[in-house]
Design a protein that fits this description.
By secondary structure, this protein is α/β, with parallel strands linked by helices. It is built from 15 helices and 26 strands. It is 20% helix and 17% strand. The chain starts with 11 loop residues before the first strand and ends with a strand.
Length: 711
């Protein structure tokens, strides 16, 4: 095949309408071969890449076309103690590949050394890995986006739905069988209509970057279902595509995004830039390790054979190297500009901030994000921790960033479990966690509130199990967290006891109501809105089966919770007092009557400092003054709403709650507020309405949340 020198930019394989430019960064490599394969991926042609500019190896093939399969072989020293693991016997994926031909077939040839003993990685293995390796695919990036417009939903109006591409539709009877578990299945009309009827505004997809199924799982007959094992940061995972021939997964992903945008729903990607699927020093040589191990990975300073591991996966990407930073930034821009996604949730984001060893909240990565004209304009969500020392960084991320609020999750779980001394912490979380975010100029929507997520118990299991049941993971039930902070309502697992099942249903509604009526941005785990169960498994990362998949056939209780969730979301949307853009001010210094928030004891009087310090207190009332929001809309108009009252009882006994006045400063004999019940989680029909005057008593049942609106 003919070839020309080509250009060092852009990196990757770029089709320009006449030919393909290939560009690969390798700082320490001594030679690079471009490997071309036929349509079956068998016959290989190797072309030396002789042109190098600024550590980028480049070549242009005027006869190459979209659909061409390719990979690389990189020559250089095999000196693990010095951090170099070059091995031209191993076919390497282009880090900038836009599509991958399929899934990997595990074989010992994928390893750069001869497997056998602890020191084995010091000796190079020369078996060819190409017969067992997926190939990169040259794609034509052209796509008819037509009038696609990003919804750009404001943070204060955002409701996130965390879901899995395959899991959401694999059992959906209304999706054609050949589309189930795919990007095309996810955009099916019934799924889209379901999400619209639920009321969510954004779907946060668990990893869709091309990932690997870990060998130890495959050997057990399992898979890496969650996908937090990335090997390509530009490629949509091929197994979620209906058609994989010639990179069609790219078009299928784009069509999915376009469909959701048309309905006003945003797409947020869960991205894993903190590590790769190549693992530790005994892992396979698939891409980065063979291209330039010392540049892409954080190596131990005094023994570069080993990797720093802040992620628990064996390696950590080297964020101190400019080409690694460029890789991540180029990937993010690609997914925004070419794939039209609306934001990102960064897995173990504290890892990305590590300049040296400590977490630096103003690290180079955040500086680059902040000034980038593309990425700074989309939704940025951090999982604000990693597994290294000092890695728990909730509240410490800079402006522009929102955070998975682990403090919210823990406080809400402990409160509804009935633990002592939780009232004050619960109140902070309910009102937007100003103690975490206000001092740095951030807003309530910096807090991504959640009670459950993919990692841990789902909501139904949270109130049904005291301990994990991960036996199906084939690890002797040793995996997964033991700190679940759950309350099983009186029995472990499934039961025929109607009273216990009623309590479980109520607790689920309590959690959902708390989540959706808290200040900040709520995130719902897919399936929690309809009381799905995983049978007590709190670590379903390897369960690509009915344990994890969404079940669409619902019983009466599940339909009841789904109806309740929809009504909660509608209530949140109708009342801006539940989704403030700024934190509460409390009582105004200028006018004591202008109080936007007030807290009440069960006797109807305002809570004192002593009440907050009472470790046995588990009940409170919260008045949100809708006419004193102290905020303005985008046109400068003052925002107003109904005044709302939340009565919350995490005690195991009923409490007679004296209904408060509409404002703390008003006297009982000067005004009688009339509170109209919106819902009560203890009622058979939680939306059954009634009215109660201020000063009258309302029987607030054990473990109940009730919401009233001022008439």
């Amino acid at each position: 095949m003919k070839f020309w020198p080509g250009k060092p930019y852009p990196l990757g394989a770029t089709w320009d309408g006449a030919g393909v430019n290939f560009a690969l960064f390798s700082e320490n490599g001594s030679a690079v071969e471009l490997c071309l394969f036929d349509e079956e991926g068998g016959n290989e042609e190797r072309i030396p890449v002789v042109n190098q500019t600024d550590q980028v190896w480049h070549i242009y093939l005027p006869e190459a076309r979209p659909g061409q399969l390719y990979g690389y072989r990189v020559h250089g020293p095999y000196e693990p103690a010095e951090g170099h693991r070059f091995n031209p016997a191993k076919l390497l994926r282009d880090p900038y590949a836009k599509a991958i031909s399929g899934l990997m077939e595990w074989n010992d040839a994928h390893f750069g050394y001869s497997i056998g003993h602890p020191e084995a990685d010091l000796t190079r293995d020369d078996r060819d890995s190409a017969p067992f390796s997926p190939k990169c695919i040259v794609i034509d990036q052209a796509f008819t986006w037509a009038d696609d417009v990003a919804p750009k939903i404001p943070w204060d109006k955002t409701i996130i739905y965390e879901a899995h591409v395959k899991g959401l539709t694999q059992l959906a009877p209304f999706v054609p069988e050949e589309l189930r578990g795919t990007y095309a299945g996810l955009r099916s009309p019934t799924v889209v209509e379901y999400l619209l009827s639920l009321g969510v505004t954004a779907i946060e997809l668990m990893p869709v970057h091309q990932f690997l199924h870990d060998r130890f799982l495959v050997d057990k007959g399992l898979k890496n279902y969650w996908g937090y094992n990335t090997i390509n940061f530009f490629s949509p995972h091929s197994d979620y595509a209906r058609r994989r021939l010639k990179g069609r997964q790219v078009d299928e992903f784009k069509t999915m995004v376009k469909t959701f945008h048309r309905e006003g729903i945003e797409i947020i990607l869960d991205v894993v830039y903190n590590h790769t699927a190549e693992g530790n020093h005994l892992g396979p040589t698939l891409s980065f390790r063979g291209i330039d191990n010392a540049a892409y990975y954080r190596l131990v300073h005094d023994d570069k054979r080993y990797y720093f591991d802040y992620t628990g996966t064996g390696n950590t990407l080297n964020m101190r190297h400019p080409r690694t930073l460029q890789l991540i930034m180029d990937s993010l821009r690609y997914w925004v500009e070419e794939m039209h996604v609306d934001g990102f949730r960064f897995d173990l984001a504290a890892t990305l901030a590590r300049e040296l060893h400590e977490v630096d909240r103003l690290g180079a990565f955040f500086d680059i994000i902040h000034q980038d004209p593309v990425i700074s304009q989309v939704k940025l969500i951090a999982e604000p921790w990693d597994l290294g020392e000092g890695g728990y960084q909730v509240g410490n991320f800079p402006v522009l960033w929102t955070e998975w609020n682990g403090e919210y999750r823990d406080a809400v779980r402990r409160f509804w479990k009935g633990d002592e001394g939780q009232l004050g912490n619960f109140a902070w979380r309910l009102t937007g966690s100003s103690d975490l975010y206000a001092s740095t100029g951030r807003r309530p929507y910096a807090s991504i509130n959640f009670v459950t997520a993919h990692d841990g118990f789902c909501l139904r299991d949270l109130v049904s199990y005291d301990r994990k049941h991960n036996e199906a993971n084939l690890d002797d039930n040793r995996d997964g967290s033991d700190n679940n902070m759950s309350w099983n309502c009186g029995a472990e697992g499934p039961t025929e006891d109607d009273e216990i099942n009623s309590l479980r249903e109520r607790q689920q509604k309590n959690f959902l109501a708390t989540l959706l009526l808290s200040q900040g941005v709520p995130m719902i785990l897919a399936g929690d809105e309809s009381s799905q169960t995983r049978g007590g498994n709190n670590n379903t990362y390897c369960q690509d089966n009915e344990i994890s998949w969404m079940h669409w056939d619902m019983d009466e209780t599940q339909r009841s919770i789904l109806k309740f969730t929809r009504s909660l979301i509608q209530l949140r949307k109708e009342h801006p007092v539940f989704r403030r853009r700024s934190f509460f001010r409390g009582r105004s210094m200028r006018d004591p009557n202008l109080q936007d928030l007030a807290w009440f004891r069960p006797d109807g009087t305002e809570m004192s400092r002593e009440d907050w310090a009472n470790p046995a207190a588990r009940c409170l009332g919260m008045v949100l003054a809708g006419d004193v929001i102290n905020e303005f809309d985008d046109r400068g108009n003052s925002i107003s709403d109904n005044t709302m009252l939340l009565l919350i009882n995490a005690h195991w006994e009923k409490i007679s709650f004296v209904m408060p006045p509409s404002r703390a400063a008003e006297k009982w004999n000067s005004f009688k507020a009339v509170w109209r019940l919106e819902f009560d989680t203890a009622a058979p029909d939680p939306t059954h309405t009634r009215s109660v005057n201020s000063g009258a008593a309302y029987d607030l049942q054990a473990r109940t949340l009730a919401v009233f609106v001022l008439s």
